[in-house]
Amino acid sequence: MIDSLPPLRDVIRSHDLRAKKSFGQNFLLDLNLTARIARAAGDLRGADVLEVGPGPGGLTRGLLAEGARRVLAIEKDTRCLPALAEISTAYPGRLQVIAGDALALDPLEHLTPPVKVVSNLPYNVGTELLIRWMTPATWPPFWDSLTLMFQREVAERIVARPGAKAYGRLALMVQWRANPQIVLSLPPEAFTPPPKVSSAVVHITRLAAPRFPADAATLERVVAAGFNQRRKMLRAALRGLHPQIEAMLLAAGIAPTARAEEIGLEAWCRLARALKGDSR
Fold first, then answer.
1. pLDDT tens digits for range 185-235
2. Backbone angles phi and psi of 151, in degrees to 5
3. Same domain, yes or no, for 109 and 172?
4. Which member of 107, 232, 255, 261 lies 3.0 to 4.6 Å from 237 by CB, making a disulfide possible if both were Cys?
5. Strands, E, within the chain: which ranges?
6. Domain boundary among 206, 237, 260
7. 6-19 pLDDT, tens per residue?
């Protein structure tokens, strides 16, 4: 055991916490696994940790046991609050629980840098939260790293390289500003109830500045246009962006007959700069 609290199966039984599909819940009950996820986030001592969707608190306990200075846990399911209160009692002054929707709350007023985000994200909001954390109004963001559980398919999209079937907008958005890697894979049977898909933990470390210069909005627009019609050649897929798109592709070192999945991040940034009129 990582602490003096009861096993998670007993916690779920005593609080009658059946996982709800409406909350995207699949509980991870093995405290050895939750401790491994906490350790995958690196040294937590001296850091505040933001956790979204703690549920009965398995990962929360791992984070606290691994030495997190403070954990701010945001939980939408009020049924889980009594179980989380028991953890707060066991770790005095180190756990703050906010009842609410992470998509509607701004946690920044409750966090003191350095901040790490570590979450077994509910499947139904995971990608949306990642996109928000990767696209703040200013960079660098409030967080130093993200250690997040996703469906395996989403995790593979985050780390995909050019030419891979999973390569697309999500890979480019994350890799432009951060270094992502899959650090842990989990089968369905690790969860209660078992989901229909495998899961994976992705550790994302932010860069101080984007990897290559580009205007964020322009880069998003050109990448979206390319991958929305990924089977088309780029000169056709991007035709609506500029009347001279073929010449711009050539100037950026991109073959107009190439398809979006063949183009690396640096070339996408060159094209975004050309569309923006920036010669850097």
1. 999 999 888 889 999 999 999 999 999 999 999 999 999 999 999 899 999
2. -60, 145
3. yes
4. 232
5. 27-28, 48-52, 70-75, 95-99, 115-120, 145-151, 178-186, 191-192, 199-206
6. 206
7. 988 899 899 888 77
